[in-house]
Amino acid sequence: MSLLFDILFEDNHLIIVNKPAGMPVQSDISGDKPLRDYVMDYIKEKYEKQGNVFVGLVHRLDRPTSGVVIFTKTSKALSRLNENFRNKDLQKTYWAIVKSPLPHSEGTLTHYLVRYPSKNISKAYDKEVKNSKKAILHYKTLQSFDHYSLVEIDLETGRHHQIRAQFTAIGCPIRGDLKYGSKRPNDDGNINLHARKIKIKHPVKDDILEIIAPLPDEVMWGKVEI
């Protein structure tokens, strides 16, 4: 069976995969086949299941973003993980390649985000404005390239396009992210934002899972030395 995604972890309750950049997690207006359907096809074929296959979607990634995505195989696991996400009982770490120079090699970004659904975009403001939600992330620089920096990001809040909007607000848009101020697109049309790691409690067992997603096969990611 040839797969378009890598399986990072699988048991009777969960399947955690490395989403390719450019693939939607769930159905959208493009009509392109989403990752969830590919996972469903994989389970159906591997386990020779008849009829409908349950694949619960716990969280999402933006289409041009790559990295860790968690699906569940049971409604029980989905319910428990949804509760963990609501209670922020997990740790998500992203890697991004952003325009240099950053104001500091590491720090905390705090903004107030307003979402504009008609344009599918969020804008970060320095002060609270009408309809805004507070957004906080912590970052540190891992490596420097020509005109770019590799940063590791831990989210304290989970807002729409939060990382993309906040780094644009400080003049350091993510490489290839035309929607958020990058000057030129990447060759593959995606952006250098990768959900690198997630740490969660298994929804059924007492195990703590720490899942790391390998980097995409892309020119700038190939320069990462860490």
Question: Which descriptors would you attach to this protein?
Answer:
single chain; 226 residues; alpha+beta; Pseudouridine synthase; 14% helix; globular
Topology:
Layout (H helix, E strand, L loop, with lengths): L5 E5 L3 E6 L15 H12 L9 E2 L8 E7 L2 H12 L3 E10 L6 E11 L4 E5 L7 E12 L3 E8 L6 H8 L23 E9 L6 E5 L14
Parallel strand pairs: 4-10
Antiparallel strand pairs: 1-2, 2-4, 3-4, 5-9, 5-10, 6-7, 6-8, 8-9, 10-11
Describe the structure.
Strands 1, 2, 3, 4, 5, 6, 7, 8, 9, 10 and 11 form an 11-stranded mixed sheet that branches. This protein starts with 5 loop residues before the first strand and ends in a 14-residue tail after the last strand. The protein has one domain (6-223): Pseudouridine synthase (2-Layer Sandwich), CATH 3.30.2350. 14% of the residues lie in helices and 35% in strands. The longest helix has 12 residues, at 35-46. The mean pLDDT is 94. It has helices at 35-46, 75-86, 162-169; strands spanning 6-10, 14-19, 56-57, 66-72, 90-99, 106-116, 121-125, 133-144, 148-155, 193-201, 208-212. With 226 residues, the protein is of the alpha+beta class. It contains 3 helices and 11 strands, in the order E-E-H-E-E-H-E-E-E-E-E-H-E-E. The protein is globular and about 55 Å long.
